[in-house]
Amino acid sequence: MDALSEAMRAVRLTSALFFNGEFSAPWRFATPSQDKVAAIVSPQSERLVLFHLVTDGEAKARSDDRDEVPLTAGDIVVFPHGHAHEMWNGRSSKLFPGSRLLPRLSKGELAAEKWGGSGAVTRIICGYLGCERHAEGSFLSGLPSIFKVNVRSSPAGAWIESAIRHGVSDSESQRAGRVAVLAKLAETLFVETLCRYMDELPPERTGWLATARDPKVGQALALLHREPARAWTLPDLARASGTSRTVLAERFVQLMGESPLAYLARWRLQLAARQLRTTDRKVLQVAYEVGYESEAAFSRAFRRVFGVPPARYRRETQAAK
Predict the structure, then answer these.
(1) How is domain 3-199 classified at the architecture level of CATH?
(2) Fewer CB near the last or first residue (10 Å), C or N of the chain?
(3) Could you tell me the residue ranges of all domains in the chain?
(4) InterPro entries in the record, alphabetically (predicted)?
(5) Average pLDDT for 249-268
């Protein structure tokens, strides 16, 4: 059991590879923010993580006012919070006309295009991971607006890249089930990238991924995600995690910035909010399913965090759809 797997299991995910580009220098393309992209490629997703895998050549990427990130073959650059960004190679004021991709993207198809000048070739495969908003409180928490990982640095990553390159090839273009296979590969690529990023975090880093990686408290975090409704106490959680109560309490606060039970309370309310948005379950049933013993206690806790009672939150979020 590991915390990352447990957290991702609790989040509804969608994914796809949506663009296979071959660019000749000089070239440049821009991607709008996730709220604009999601409406086209994954309208059911509340959060969209965008990523681009460089399979040949080189490029640079930049998000917002961040410094440019150099990319070479095997690098995947990720925009975990869906910020608008640019990629390029060489000096060019002429943008790739992304609007011509819209008819295929709106159908959920893989778009393939060539663009640019007569210089060095860069090949890029673009994809996304769509998820619910409460992923921002777990595996997306604390991630920078842009980061890169070289997937060829691990055997698993190299295999996934090879499978993706085969899947987007012309020889596979008419094969039945291709889109479904590419969707699974996109999700697998993102998970592998997140694992590589987590492995490469410096020892002094804190946050959700650092907590998940820690051998002492990562097991506790996984248990909280696997059984959020259980009536956990700190001694119970420490025993189940194979560590002492003191070590668990101190190390968890050091890495996460809050106690295990405070994190659990916050996670329960995120799960409850999802149920209120997406189901017709009664408020009392939602309260029981996330670990509260009474509707009154649940309503008080929910109002402290979301500013409104559960029933009103449901009405307002469903009316906004």
Answers:
(1) Sandwich (2.60)
(2) C
(3) 3-199, 214-321
(4) AraC_lig, Homeodomain-like_sf, HTH-like, HTH_AraC, HTH_AraC-typ_CS, RmlC-like_jellyroll, Tscrpt_reg_AraC-type_HTH
(5) 96
